[in-house]
């Protein structure tokens, strides 16, 4: 991590190391998106969850649509995050540390969501998605004060996270009282 921070010390000049670091940081949201895509495939937990749930009719009922949209909106977050690190000269100030901390909370809540999908728990999935949306809003607003492009790159994910939170909450409401078919 210190090599990454050291390479980001000069916010005005992008070097080959900066492009490598941005690629490394991008691996995190890309791997999360790929995991969700795999989970939406045949036999995956997300697919099973969708098959066993009552879904709202105002959004796509295909888990692959949700997984692909998630992947596409997660993809630019690594680059956006590195722009924040770079713009703050390697996390040299409190606002940038807070922004990256909020992004970390977002990553943690995204992991909680994936774990709850594997357990097929509607209420916990809805709460985790709401947490992901809240954290996405928070880190995007923090990014806005540091790097406008990072903020703009995070907006598609914020919009999708809000949609997904509302969608999963509605799935929870529609499925309350129903017995979810066993695995």
TrEMBL record:
<keyword id="KW-0472">Membrane</keyword>
<dbReference type="Pfam" id="PF03073">
    <property type="entry name" value="TspO_MBR"/>
</dbReference>
<comment type="similarity">
    <text>Belongs to the TspO/BZRP family.</text>
</comment>
<keyword id="KW-0812">Transmembrane</keyword>
<dbReference type="InterPro" id="IPR038330">
    <property type="entry name" value="TspO/MBR-related_sf"/>
</dbReference>
<keyword id="KW-1133">Transmembrane helix</keyword>
<dbReference type="InterPro" id="IPR004307">
    <property type="entry name" value="TspO_MBR"/>
</dbReference>
<dbReference type="GO" id="GO:0005741">
    <property type="term" value="C:mitochondrial outer membrane"/>
</dbReference>
<dbReference type="GO" id="GO:0033013">
    <property type="term" value="P:tetrapyrrole metabolic process"/>
</dbReference>
<protein>
    <submittedName>
        <fullName>Uncharacterized protein</fullName>
    </submittedName>
</protein>
């Amino acid at each position: 991590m210190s090599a990454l921070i050291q390479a980001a010390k000069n916010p005005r000049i992008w070097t080959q190391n900066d492009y490598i670091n941005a690629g490394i940081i991008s691996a995190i949201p890309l791997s999360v998106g790929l995991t969700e895509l795999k989970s939406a495939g045949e036999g995956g937990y997300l697919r099973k969850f969708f098959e066993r749930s009552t879904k709202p009719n105002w959004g796509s009922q295909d888990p692959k649509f949700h997984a692909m949209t998630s992947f596409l909106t997660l993809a630019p977050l690594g680059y956006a995050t590195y722009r924040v690190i770079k713009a703050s000269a390697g996390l040299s100030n409190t606002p940038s540390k807070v922004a990256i901390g909020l992004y970390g909370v977002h990553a943690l809540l995204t992991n909680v969501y994936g774990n709850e999908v594997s357990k097929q728990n509607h209420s916990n999935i809805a709460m985790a998605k709401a947490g992901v949306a809240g954290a996405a809003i928070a880190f995007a607003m923090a990014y806005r004060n540091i790097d406008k492009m990072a903020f703009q790159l995070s907006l598609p994910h914020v919009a999708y996270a809000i949609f997904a939170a509302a969608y999963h909450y509605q799935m929870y409401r529609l499925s309350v009282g129903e017995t979810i078919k066993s695995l």
